[in-house]
Write a structure and sequence with these properties.
CATH topology of chain B: outer membrane lipoprotein receptor (LolB), chain A
Helix content of chain A: under 10%
Oligomer: heterodimer
Helix content of chain B: 10-25%
Radius of gyration of chain B: 19 Å
Largest sheet of chain A: 18 strands, antiparallel, barrel
CATH architecture of chain A: Beta Barrel
CATH class of chain A: Mainly Beta
CATH topology of chain A: Porin
Strand content of chain A: over 45%
Largest sheet of chain B: 14 strands, antiparallel
Structural class of chain B: mainly beta
Number of strands of chain A: 25
CATH architecture of chain B: Clam
Order of helices and strands of chain B: HHEEEEEEHEEEEEEEE
Shape of chain A: globular
CATH class of chain B: Mainly Beta
Radius of gyration of chain A: 24 Å
Strand content of chain B: 35-45%
CATH superfamily of chain B: Lipoprotein localisation LolA/LolB/LppX
Number of helices of chain A: 1
Number of domains of chain A: 1
């Protein structure tokens, strides 16, 4: 009897040992085929019609040390039929990760997301936006970093050293959503240009249904200020050194999710140089670069999402999203800012076997009295195949920086195959 | 003979010799069932969830669940990791069960690296398109229900307690549940779920129980049948592992981002 117990105890120990120390290896791939239909010729650039694009994504993961250490590699490449700027590759991640007791350490190229709101991601600043990938700014380039995370009773503290700045990808003149803009060489405030080392930190915690975070960033801005060259007439992307304080708050109260993101930033040149009947932040003249004064500003997104579970006696969850965007610079705000806008949206979760979702939104600028519409849907065709649909309508007024996109309305279908 | 008598006596003590009203006896049964499941420390299991529609068409998905037993007054913590369908790979859900207040729940979406807190208001909603609601898959803490012992019943030669339990949470999708619990091992074999109109909505059946570490019983198969839609969901469990040495590090909000 005791023999039996002994044996099973040994068997148990063996079982435990193997299950914990088994290293894990993952090799995964994904191909996206993207078909986009444009109804109108662009104001500047390509004609109406169907455009093709293909993207390849890979993921290789290996861990050891009972899974407490790992390396992840995520390469990415896109080929685009029209826009050579959009035909591009990137290392999304190549990072070593160690998990200790109460701390985590990462080194390499990584990706980090900060934020809670839908319509804009103000606080999110670690990674550069891969703008040619998606106009919503949610696709990011890999960022070289060393990250130390402290996970303690008093909350979480994330500390970053970011030794290199990536340039934002911008659509080429032959591509859509470019506004027909041509770009000159990028300019930096820092003499070290892209090698200027940025530092950042974020503290976050939660109390019951309240989650909040404070963040700081010092370094080269991820958002370029767009200036003009007197010499070529082209756009000059300029990256200033900035300081940013960020706040994120989310409070869940039954069906309500209340959200707030706010930043306070200094170092961004204001759009205050008058030239060519336009307001510029940066002007390249024969004598050199002229940069407008900067003034500290703050910007915020605040709103809620209210979810009705099982609406109309069905399985469908229906969410209502309302957010207000504000920028204290108002007319002097940078081109990509939302100075005075309201997002009204509705989110449908069908809760079917395919987990279909649909998000429809309208961003309304109440001062320019113009709007943009967006629709994003997704469903699954089978275990290895899913499909996304995205559509956007741009109706900018002539004062709106997005005026160049007025003929770029599109519908896009993306098939995603996983292997 | 004396031993048998003692055993019988202690059994009745546990099951409700002290309980006089149906409410007290129902609670005593739930507490005893809970007590028998205590001390497992941690567990992990791979499972296959099969969604079956009215035509009998099946769509499968695979996931893993890791659970950490709550110390003293805390509820269990669980981490659910999705492997297939492939568009869901890497999606992970972390739940902190609480006895007295609503659970905390976070969902991780790997494509955006975004951790989203889920409102407990969603608890009655379907879990990943299945016939299981969020509340059906979360840890069943004793404190979350009011109980009422209904009757004894013999099913397939097994003596069962039939106990009604009423969710205390006003956002539960159920007015009441009726559970069949065997009197020998206190395993839940079947639960009838009644919707908010008090109509029979679903039946859960647990089958092929296996015992682990000479103590913990787990079903190898669970089937949830929706009587109102004709759809069903099957959960097929692979072997459970207990006391694998999982620690708190695998159950933090940050751990979601590296869950594999």
């Amino acid at each position: 009897m005791s023999m039996c117990v002994g044996k099973s105890a040994i068997a148990m120990v063996l079982l435990v040992t193997t299950s914990v120390t088994q290293a894990r290896t993952d090799v995964l791939g994904q191909v996206d085929y993207e078909l986009t239909a444009y109804a109108e010729d662009a104001t500047y650039g390509p004609d109406a019609g169907l455009k093709n694009s293909v993207a390849l994504r890979g993921e290789v993961y290996q861990d050891w040390d009972d899974g407490y250490q790992s390396i992840t590699f995520k390469p990415f490449y896109r080929w685009d039929e029209n826009d050579e700027e959009r035909t591009h590759g990137d290392i999304r991640e190549l990072i070593w990760h160690k998990v200790g007791l109460g701390y985590e350490l990462k080194a390499g190229i990584g990706k980090v997301f900060w934020g809670v709101t839908e319509s804009a991601h103000l606080v999110d600043i670690i990674n550069q936006t891969d703008l040619v990938e998606s106009i919503d700014g949610e696709q990011k380039l890999g960022q070289p970093m060393i990250q130390l995370l402290l996970e303690r009773d008093w909350g979480n503290l994330d500390l970053f050293v970011l030794p290199y700045q990536r340039e934002r990808t911008l659509p080429g003149q032959d591509g859509r959503l470019s506004g027909g803009l041509a770009y000159d060489d990028t300019q930096y405030e820092s003499d070290q240009e892209q090698s200027h080392v940025a530092v950042a930190g974020r503290y976050y915690t939660y109390i019951d249904q309240l989650e909040y975070a404070f963040s700081v960033f010092h370094g080269t801005s991820r958002e370029p200020v767009l200036g003009v060259s007197q010499l070529s007439g082209n756009v000059v992307p300029y990256y200033p050194l900035i300081n940013q304080l960020g706040l994120e708050v989310q409070y869940l109260d039954e069906g309500w999710a209340w959200k707030l993101e706010s930043i306070y930033r200094d170092g961004m040149p204001e759009y205050s140089i008058e030239q060519f009947g336009q307001r510029l932040a940066v002007l390249q003249t024969p004598s050199g670069l002229q940069v407008a004064d900067d003034e500290a500003y703050w910007s915020s997104v605040a709103g809620f999402e209210y979810t009705q579970v099982g609406v109309f006696d069905s399985r469908i969850d229906l969410g209502w999203v309302a957010e207000h965007l504000y920028d204290s610079r108002q007319a002097k705000a940078s081109l990509s800012a939302f100075e005075h806008d309201v997002l009204l949206g509705t989110r449908w979760s069908f809760n079917d076997a395919e987990e279909s979702t649909l998000l429809v939104g309208m961003l309304y600028d109440y001062e320019y009295q113009d709007y943009g519409l967006s629709l994003e849907g997704s469903t699954r065709l089978d275990n290895r195949l899913s499909v996304d649909v995205e559509a956007r309508v741009f109706a900018p007024s002539s004062q709106n920086p997005q005026f160049g996109l007025r003929d770029d309305d599109f519908i896009e279908i993306t098939l995603q195959y996983y292997f | 003979m004396k031993t048998v008598l003692l055993l019988t006596l202690s059994f009745f003590m546990a099951a409700g010799a002290l309980a006089h009203t149906p409410q007290e006896k129902g609670l005593a049964i739930a507490e005893e069932a809970d007590k028998r499941g205590e001390g497992y420390q941690d567990s992990q299991v791979k499972l296959r969830m099969v969604l079956i529609d009215n035509n009998g068409d099946e769509s499968p998905r695979q996931m893993r669940v890791k659970t950490l037993e709550g110390a003293a007054e805390e509820g269990d913590k669980s981490l659910m990791i999705f492997d297939t369908p492939r568009d869901q790979k890497g999606v992970a859900m972390l739940t902190y069960t609480h006895k007295a207040k609503p659970d905390d729940q976070w969902l991780y979406l790997p494509a955006l690296k975004r951790v989203k807190k889920i409102s407990s208001r969603n608890k009655s909603g379907p879990f990943v398109g299945s016939e299981f609601a969020f509340e059906d898959i979360s840890s069943q803490e004793v404190e979350k229900y009011d109980y009422k012992y209904l009757r004894d019943e013999t099913v397939d030669g097994k003596k069962m307690f039939v106990v009604e339990r009423d969710p205390k949470d006003k956002y539960s999708g159920y007015t009441r549940q009726v559970a069949w619990i065997d009197q020998e091992e206190y395993r839940v074999w079947k639960i009838d779920f009644y919707d908010r109109k008090n109509d029979l909505l679903k039946t859960l059946e647990n089958k092929d129980f296996k015992q682990y570490l000479d103590q913990y019983w787990r079903p190898s198969l669970s089937v949830m049948q929706n009587h109102q839609t004709g759809k069903a969901t099957r959960l097929e469990y692979e072997a459970y592992e207990f006391k694998v040495g999982l620690d708190e590090r695998a159950f933090t909000k940050n751990s979601l981002k590296r869950a594999r």
